Amino acid sequence: MDFLTLIELLDSTVRSATPLLLACLAGLYSERAGIFDIGLEGKMLAAAFFSAAIAFMTGSAWLGLLAGIGASLVLSVIHGLASINYRGNQLISGVAINFLAAGMTVLVAEDWFSEGGRTPSLEGSARFGPIKLPFADQIADTPVVGPIYAGLLSGHSVLVYVAFAMVPVTWWVLYRSRFGLRLRAVGEAPEAVDTAGVSVIRLRYSAVIICGVLCGVAGAYLATGLQANFTKDMTANRGFIALAALIFAKWRPWYALAACLLFGFLFAIETRFQNIALFGVPLPLQLVQALPYILTVVILAGFVGKAIPPRAGGEAYVKER
Amino acid sequence: MTFVHKFLSTAAALALSAGAALSEPALIFDLGGKFDKSFNEAAFNGAKRWADESGGTFREIELQSEAQREQALRRFAEAGANPIVMTGFAFGNVLGEVAPDYPDTKFAIIDMVVDAPNVRSVVFNEHEGSYLVGMMAAMASTSGTVGFIGGMDIPLIRKFACGYVQGVKAVNPDATVIQNMTGTTPAAWNDPVKGSELTKAQISQGADVVYAAAGGTGVGVLQTAADENILSIGVDSNQNYMHPGKVLTSMMKRVDNAVYEAMKMGENLETGFNVMGVANGGIDYAMDEHNAPLVSDEMKAAVDGAKDQIASGALAVHDYMSDNACPVE
Predict the structure, then answer these.
(1) B62, B154, B193, B194, best to mutate vs chain A, most A CBs in 10 Å
(2) How far apart are CA B26 and CA A4, in angstroms?
(3) Residue B158: inside a domain, yes or no?
(4) What range does the domain containing B199 cover?
(5) Is residue B62 domain-shared with residue B119, that is, in the same domain?
(6) Looking at beta carbons, which residues of chain B come within 8 Å of A5?
């Protein structure tokens, strides 16, 4: 494999990892606050549809992004109501959200556009185009540094940079801010937070809302950054892979970045080298495509050690009388 | 409660008696939906053409879930619709069970073979159409490398791929064809993001024409090809309009013709095995104002020549599904 192929591979890694990373961080906020969220997939899907639909109607990718975030927020608040106020089962609520999003997006798309659950193609400013970093063209020919800068770092849509910037931001919020300390505490021992006179409900809602915003960005990136329209079920289980990455990372932001990049890299390898020959024997396609999942199991079983979720996760908080 | 009961039973009796009186054809769309710009919409257009010409009416239903397949079939059959046309290979198993229960009703299934005395099985020679577009791809390519992106890795899609490769090699024996499949599960039909990544990977390996036979995933392929300024080839119905000037052509399955003919025959539907190929107009490549500038007279002449040869039987394109192997890579 030559250097340029490696750059292309890493470039593809970044694109594949971005939606995973956003969804993973979204789940991180929610689960750190004690709200399990398997509805990441549904929220991304709803955001993907509404961002594409509104971007098409208004011609602005930014308005589309806002609409996507809005749609995702609505689902987040439903999840919040069910699991915080009404103390429902968080897994069931998450599953319901996934079903709701899968059905609703296609239904509304069919009603609005009559294109078989698709949105029309977006053009021009209705999409998030690639951003060229300064001097990318000038130094593109410099050996080693040029391709890395111009080929790998430059030329992504703005949401990619947002996603990667969210990692240090999340780290800072969680480990350096008062809000983060309380957020982590509410996922471990909500009764202690309550005793200290801080509202558990408000904290958990803030976490769920942050989760909604990040899922909204992830969905908008899929539909208006990577693609130029919404298609039925276009998230293709990325929300669940993000959940796996989250467990992988043991609910820590920098590790989440590493886990998502690893998944992205495996997907990039899988798309780039479908016909790998190992010692002269061609590997079957099915094996190559299963590789990301096999490696996940191997790494999870052998290298990560025990992943312990936040202790109060999955349980509604009931004030003691 | 009694009122509701009474009301419901009256309604049911009415519906039954009304149904028995009718003998109009019915059309069941697969999960893709009626207006999918592709397969199902073509079926609808065929039915509409029949209705406009004959002045008749037809019943239709769009499936919302897998579980409705049998339900929809049985309800139409109970209601006396005849013939009942359905689109998509996924009806195969269900129809195999339902058809013997209604020996007086005729069924037509598209894209699948069901062996029953009252079923007409319509299948398409996709390999022939793929051969034609493969020839065009090889002629339009300047790099000598072209790509194929399939949806789910099933024999039907390998049939597309194999025909395509044969067409490419017929024009340029030294050409390289990069073949990729999106996945091995049904999710592979609806992953445009991965379609884009596959297209980008193929472009980086030198491909400058990409043929997508991948359902919804193909939308991502065509989009990326247009963004990266290479040519793409659509599938099933005419997709040239999706990116004018960027889609070289489309491999068309005339599902509309199949539905039209089935409805025209009505209750006297000819059952058995029905093959739609280049010879009887069931398979073709798309030409319209969107791709006219891309196709030279020379290309058109060569492809039409091959079309005549296939139609007359002088040129045989290997069918992958006949022996699950492809003579060329």
Answers:
(1) B193
(2) 56
(3) yes
(4) 126-253+296-323
(5) yes
(6) 204
User: Cα–Cα–Cα angle for A82, A221, A113, nearest 5°?
Assistant: 80
Question: What is the secondary structure of A11-33 as a DSSP string?
Answer: HHHHHHHHHHHHHHHHHHHHHHT
User: How far is Cα A98 from Cα A105, in angstroms, rounded to an integer?
Assistant: 11
A7 alpha-carbon distance from chain centroid: 23
- String of DSSP letters for A38-86: --HHHHHHHHHHHHHHHHHHHS-HHHHHHHHHHHHHHHHHHHHIIIIIS
If one counts the domains in chain B, the total is 2
**B181 - beta bridge partners?**
B150
Evaluate the CA torsion angle A274, A276, A281, A286 in order and state its sign: negative
**In a shared domain, residues B164 and B114:** no
Is B236 found in the same domain as B154?
A: yes
CA–CA separation, B139 vs A290, rounded Å? Answer: 36
Distance of CA B149 to the CA centre of its chain: 16
Q: Are residues B70 and B93 in the same domain?
A: yes
Is the distance from CB of B218 to CB of A231 less than 8 angstroms?
no
Q: Give the A:B interface size as CB pairs under 8 Å.
A: 92
The domain spanning residue B147 has which CATH number?
3.40.50.2300
- The two tokens of residue A6 are 């490696």
Give the 3-state DSSP-derived string for B190-214, with helices as H, strands as E and coil as C: HCHHHHHHHHHHHHHCCCCEEEEEC
Residue B285 has which token pair? 């490549």
Provide the token pair at B208. 């400058």
Question: Cβ–Cβ of B197/A236 closer than 8 Å?
Answer: no
Contact A227 B196 (CB under 8 A): yes
Q: Name the one residue in this structure whose structure tokens are 């890579």.
A: B329
- pLDDT string in tens for chain B (329-residue length): 455 555 555 555 444 444 444 578 999 988 777 777 777 888 999 999 999 999 989 999 988 778 889 999 999 999 989 899 998 888 989 999 999 999 999 999 998 889 999 999 999 999 999 999 999 999 999 999 999 999 888 888 999 999 999 999 999 999 999 999 998 887 888 889 999 999 999 998 899 999 999 888 998 999 999 999 999 999 988 889 989 999 999 999 999 999 999 999 888 888 998 999 999 888 999 999 999 999 999 999 999 999 999 999 999 999 998 888 888 87
- Give A74's Cβ-side CA count (13 Å radius): 11
Q: Are strands A281-282 and A277-278 parallel, antiparallel or unpaired?
A: antiparallel
Do A110 and B35 lie within an 8 Å CB cutoff? yes
Do residue A115 and residue B35 have CB atoms under 8 angstroms apart? yes
For chain A, which residues make up each domain, given as ranges? Answer: 3-302
Q: Name chain B contacts of A285, Cβ cutoff 8 Å.
A: 153, 181, 184
The CA distance from A207 to A210, in Å, is 5
Among candidates B184, B190, B243 on the partner chain, residue whose Cβ is nearest the Cβ of A232: B190
Do B212 and B91 lie in one domain? The reply is no
Could you name the CATH architecture of A3-302?
A: Orthogonal Bundle (1.10)
Sole residue written with tokens 């991180």 = A28
